[in-house]
C-alpha cells in the first residue's frame, strides 16, 4: 500500500508523526510519501497545494492527513475540500464510542454510533456568489450523491443494528425532503429500518440520549456540525478520528483542526490521529492490527498516560510511545 502523508500545519505536524510511530510498530511495509501541503506552503509560495501534489496523491492508495490552518485570504479554497472533491471521497465516516476512563459530559456511558456524512455536495458545493450587498451559496443535493451515501449507510447498518437515522430539515428545505426520500428508498431496498430526525431536534437529543442512535446519515453541513457535537459527547476533539472514503481512494484524519493555541508545545493529544490510522488499517484489511490499536489506546488511557486536554501531564510523544510499546 502507498500512503500519502500530509501532516499539514500546527499540531498536525505533531500528531501525524506520533500516529506514524504507532503504525511503524506493526512493520507492515506500507510505503509512505511525505508531502508538504498547507498554510506554511501558502505563505512561502502563495499556493497551499499544487497540481503536482495532486498528481502524487492520486498515485497513492490513501492519505493520512493532519490539519490545515485556513489562510486569511478571502479567495483561499480549502485543501481538504479539494481533496474530497477531486478524489471523490464522498463518504465521511465518523465513529463515536466512549474510550476507557474518559470523563464524559453526558450521564450515558453506553453509546456506539457512527455519523455517515455526505462529503462532496450540499452546502459545500462551492457554487457561490459574492456581491456588494448580497451573497449566495447554492445547496446542491443530487440523486446520485444522495443514493451513494445512503447505500454506504445501509451497508454499514447491515453489519450493525440494521437501522439508520436520517437527519434533515425537510420541514423547511425542499433539498432536504429530496435527500430524505432518496435515503428512505435506499433503506427500504436494503431491508433496513429507518427513523427521521430534524437536524435541530437531533442536536438536542444526541446530547441527552446518544445511546438511542446507531448509524446516522446526513448531508454535508449538518454532518459537519453534528460530528463536533458528537466529539464533545465522546470526550473531546483530541479523541475522535474520521475516514473519508470513495470508490478508489480514502483519506484518514483526526476531526480536530491545527489548534494554533497549543501548536509547538508538544502537548496535543495524538489519540484522534492514532485512531485515524486504526481506521486506515481497517480499510486496508488489517483488522487484527486495527483492533490492537483500540486495545492499546484504552490500556494507556486506563494507566492515565494522558495529555493535558484529558487532565494529564504527558506529552504527545509520551502517549504515542506508550501505545507503540504495547503494540
Ligand atoms: P481546532 O480543532 O484546531 O481547536 C479547537 C480547540 O480544541 C482548541 O482549543 C484546541 O487546542 C483544542 N484541540 C484540538 N485538537 C486537539 C488535540 N489533538 N489535543 C488537544 N487539544 C486539541 O479548531 P479551531 O481552533 O477552530 O481551528 C484552528 C485552525 O484549524 C483554523 O485555521 C481552522 O480553519 C483549521 N481547521 C482545520 C481542519 C482540518 O484541516 N481538517 C478542521 C478544523 C479546523
Ligand atoms: Mg468540522
Automatic annotation (TrEMBL):
<dbReference type="GO" id="GO:0009098">
    <property type="term" value="P:L-leucine biosynthetic process"/>
</dbReference>
<dbReference type="GO" id="GO:0006099">
    <property type="term" value="P:tricarboxylic acid cycle"/>
</dbReference>
<feature type="domain" description="Isopropylmalate dehydrogenase-like">
    <location>
        <begin position="2"/>
        <end position="323"/>
    </location>
</feature>
<dbReference type="GO" id="GO:0003862">
    <property type="term" value="F:3-isopropylmalate dehydrogenase activity"/>
</dbReference>
<dbReference type="GO" id="GO:0000287">
    <property type="term" value="F:magnesium ion binding"/>
</dbReference>
<dbReference type="InterPro" id="IPR019818">
    <property type="entry name" value="IsoCit/isopropylmalate_DH_CS"/>
</dbReference>
<dbReference type="InterPro" id="IPR024084">
    <property type="entry name" value="IsoPropMal-DH-like_dom"/>
</dbReference>
<keyword id="KW-0432">Leucine biosynthesis</keyword>
<dbReference type="Pfam" id="PF00180">
    <property type="entry name" value="Iso_dh"/>
</dbReference>
<dbReference type="GO" id="GO:0004449">
    <property type="term" value="F:isocitrate dehydrogenase (NAD+) activity"/>
</dbReference>
<keyword id="KW-0028">Amino-acid biosynthesis</keyword>
<dbReference type="InterPro" id="IPR011828">
    <property type="entry name" value="LEU3_arc"/>
</dbReference>
<keyword id="KW-0460">Magnesium</keyword>
<comment type="similarity">
    <text>Belongs to the isocitrate and isopropylmalate dehydrogenases family.</text>
</comment>
<keyword id="KW-0560">Oxidoreductase</keyword>
<keyword id="KW-0520">NAD</keyword>
<dbReference type="GO" id="GO:0006102">
    <property type="term" value="P:isocitrate metabolic process"/>
</dbReference>
<dbReference type="GO" id="GO:0051287">
    <property type="term" value="F:NAD binding"/>
</dbReference>
<keyword id="KW-0100">Branched-chain amino acid biosynthesis</keyword>
<keyword id="KW-0479">Metal-binding</keyword>
<protein>
    <recommendedName>
        <fullName>3-isopropylmalate dehydrogenase</fullName>
        <ecNumber>1.1.1.85</ecNumber>
    </recommendedName>
</protein>
<comment type="subunit">
    <text>Homodimer.</text>
</comment>
<keyword id="KW-0464">Manganese</keyword>
